[in-house]
TrEMBL record:
The keyword S-adenosyl-L-methionine does not apply. GO terms for molecular function: 4-hydroxythreonine-4-phosphate dehydrogenase activity; cobalt ion binding; magnesium ion binding; NAD binding; zinc ion binding. This is 4-hydroxythreonine-4-phosphate dehydrogenase. Catalyzes the NAD(P)-dependent oxidation of 4-(phosphooxy)-L-threonine (HTP) into 2-amino-3-oxo-4-(phosphooxy)butyric acid which spontaneously decarboxylates to form 3-amino-2-oxopropyl phosphate (AHAP). Keywords: Cobalt, Cytoplasm, Magnesium, Metal-binding, NAD, NADP, Oxidoreductase, Pyridoxine biosynthesis, Zinc. The keyword RNA-binding does not apply. Belongs to the PdxA family. Its cofactor is Zn(2+); Mg(2+); Co(2+). NCBIfam families: pdxA, PRK05312.1. It catalyses: 4-(phosphooxy)-L-threonine + NAD(+) = 3-amino-2-oxopropyl phosphate + CO2 + NADH. The gene is pdxA. Binds 1 divalent metal cation per subunit. Can use ions such as Zn(2+), Mg(2+) or Co(2+).
Length: 324
């Protein structure tokens, strides 16, 4: 039985999503069928695309053109100039992709970048970002953001908040939830039979025995010890400044970090263009390129498709893992 193709959302049509989608298809072609949900009028002029009416049509259309599942927008898109009137259609394109994967008509959802401010101003978007919106659509409360490339997987426990607020936001419940979701996803979606998780400390030198902070002693260590007693394989808390060189990375399958930059600096240093954003804990697969709408270069042809191609490849690999 042929596996359903991947649903790729259009993202903000004034951003780099349309041109990246064409470039991704030119690279992947029939090898990795996916279909684009959006308005064909928003694709770059002269590009090979073909409208489909059923997602499965993408399997044969992909050999010669980008398969497009038409999703009308109210106004034309001008590269680099987002239009608030198009914001509701951006949101409903995401909703449509989720519905298709929930119905089994798509094997995964891959999302092109959105612009939160545009959605908030134009459609009353009430979420911090894609991840929380997708969790709401799926009816899931707890999800985890992973950034992944071939050399490293990182998971920040806290995400978009000021550094001064991180210590107050960290709780044993949040850390345990993040560790368990990551552990289960590595088994289910990445084929890691016995996941090894490395936990970073919050403070320099992992607190240095309490001299530079006590969160490692009072919060992180108790969670690590408790989950190890439950049969998980977790090391730490480790000093974050020694976790990410090649020899250290060989000893774990994912690094659990306490805050945004602690996780994203190493992965963007190792593979700036090829990182993928993965949402763990959803009942379906969701990946995304690890960059924004890039309004400043939209329509110029300069956008790099490496991250989107990696996101589509990772979604395909995860879909295979779930069906074996």
């Amino acid at each position: 039985m042929t596996r359903p193709p991947i649903a790729l959302t259009c993202g903000d049509p004034a951003g780099v999503g349309p041109e990246l989608s064409i470039k991704a298809h030119q690279t992947l072609g029939a090898r990795l069928p996916f279909f684009w949900i959006g308005d064909p009028a928003h694709l770059p002029d002269g590009t090979a695309h073909e409208e489909i009416h059923d997602p499965m049509d993408a399997v044969h259309v992909s050999a010669t053109a980008l398969p497009v599942l038409r999703h009308p927008f109210p106004v034309p898109a001008q590269p680099g100039q987002p239009d608030l009137r198009n914001a509701p259609a951006v949101m409903t394109a995401i909703t449509r992709a989720v519905e298709l994967v929930q119905e089994g008509r798509a094997s995964a959802v891959c999302t092109n970048p959105i612009h939160k401010q545009v959605l908030q101003d134009g459609a009353g978007f009430a979420y911090p970002g894609h991840t929380e919106f997708l969790a709401s659509l799926a009816g899931v409360k707890n999800v985890v953001m992973m950034l992944a490339c071939d050399e490293l997987r990182v998971v920040p426990v806290t995400i978009h908040m000021a550094v001064k607020d991180v210590a107050g936001a960290l709780t044993e419940e949040l850390l345990e939830q993040t560790l368990r979701i990551t552990h289960d996803a590595l088994i289910r979606d990445f084929g890691v039979e016995t996941p090894r998780l490395a936990v970073a400390g919050l403070n320099p030198h992992a607190g240095e025995g309490g001299k530079m902070g006590t969160e490692e002693i009072t919060l992180i260590t108790p969670v690590v010890e408790r989950l190890n007693r439950d049969g998980l394989h977790i090391s730490g808390p480790r000093s974050a400044d020694t976790m990410f060189h090649a020899q250290a990375r060989a000893g774990y399958d994912a690094a659990i970090c306490m805050y945004h930059d602690q996780a994203l600096i190493p992965i963007k240093t190792i593979d700036f263009s090829g990182g993928v954003n993965v949402t763990l804990g959803l009942p379906f697969i969701r990946t995304s390129p690890d960059h924004g709408t890039a309004f400043d270069i939209a329509g110029s042809g300069r956008a790099d498709p490496t991250s989107l191609i990696a996101a589509l490849n990772m979604a395909d690999t995860m879909a295979k893992a779930r069906t074996t």
